[in-house]
């Protein structure tokens, strides 16, 4: 937006009426989303997981710098393993799943050159495995936020339909978060409830 003017507000995907008691960041990477959630809801219990131990090491370093000391972290491949006890009872679950990363290509255009279209289906299948495993262990009153940094329908809108129609969750909100007009990444997010 022009200087001095506010741009359109991005829709919120986190609870606004009630703070979560237990947040689980299922694909936490280096922890940026969890740090934001902790800043928004400092009293909540925090659980983080990722498939890569090296990235969890980076997360621990960032958490120390952010002053976050109380949390549970574990390594897991959610495409093949059920969630462990540490994640039980989470009332807000974030699944920022592995994806093509196509929403970031404006800053990494070389990725488009090397991209193979069959990767879209491969990522979609991986996303379904991860989400199916998470949903089977969701608490009865939990909210699930699904997100990608992809622009592809198969990873976004078709996943919303899969989660709604095949896994039985109610979609409360879903939309792309367009970044290209602001020289930023384009993302996609959807929030679900049972």
Descriptive notes:
- Helices cover 28% and strands 21% of the residues.
- A seven-stranded mixed beta sheet has the order 3-2-1-4-5-7-6, sandwiched between helices.
- Strand 2, helix 2 and strand 3 form a beta-alpha-beta unit.
- It is globular.
List its traits.
194 residues, alpha/beta, 7-stranded mixed sheet, 5 helices, 21% strand, globular, disordered N terminus
Task: Summarize it.
This protein is of the alpha/beta class and 194 residues long. The protein is 28% helix and 21% strand. The chain is built from 5 helices and 7 strands.
In whole angstroms, how far apart are the ends? 37 Å
Q: What's the arrangement of strands in the largest beta sheet? A: 3-2-1-4-5-7-6
Average pLDDT over all residues? 91
How many strands, which pairing sense, and closed or not: the largest β-sheet?
A: 7 strands, mixed
Uncertain runs with pLDDT below 50, 5 residues or more? 1-10
Radius of gyration: 17 Å
Going by helix content, strand content and strand pairing, the class is: alpha/beta
Q: What is the string of helix and strand elements?
A: EHEHEEHHEHEE
Approximate helicity band: 25-40%
Number of helices: 5
Beta-strand segment tally: 7
Beta content comes to 15-25%
Shape label: globular
Architecture blueprint of SSEs:
Layout: E1 22-25, H1 32-40, E2 45-50, H2 53-66, E3 72-75, E4 92-96, H3 110-114, H4 118-135, E5 143-148, H5 157-165, E6 170-177, E7 187-193
Parallel strand pairs: 1-2, 1-4, 2-3, 4-5
Antiparallel strand pairs: 5-7, 6-7
């Amino acid at each position: 937006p022009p200087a001095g003017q506010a741009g359109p507000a991005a829709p919120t995907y986190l609870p606004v009426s009630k703070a979560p008691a237990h947040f689980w960041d299922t694909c936490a990477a280096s922890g940026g989303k969890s740090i934001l959630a902790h800043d928004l809801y400092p009293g909540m219990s925090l659980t983080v997981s990722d498939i890569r131990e090296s990235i969890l090491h980076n997360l621990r370093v960032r958490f120390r710098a952010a002053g976050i000391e109380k949390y549970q972290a574990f390594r897991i491949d959610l495409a093949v393993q059920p969630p462990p006890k540490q994640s039980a009872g989470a009332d807000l679950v974030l699944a920022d799943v592995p994806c093509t990363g196509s929403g970031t290509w404006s800053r990494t255009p070389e990725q488009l050159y090397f991209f193979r279209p069959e990767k879209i289906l491969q990522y979609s299948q991986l996303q379904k495995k991860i989400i199916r495993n998470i949903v089977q262990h969701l608490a009865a009153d939990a909210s699930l936020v699904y997100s990608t940094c992809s622009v592809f329908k198969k990873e976004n809108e078709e996943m919303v339909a899969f989660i709604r129609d095949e896994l039985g969750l109610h979609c409360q909100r879903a939309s792309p978060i367009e970044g290209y007009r602001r020289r930023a990444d384009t993302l996609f997010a959807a929030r679900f409830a049972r």
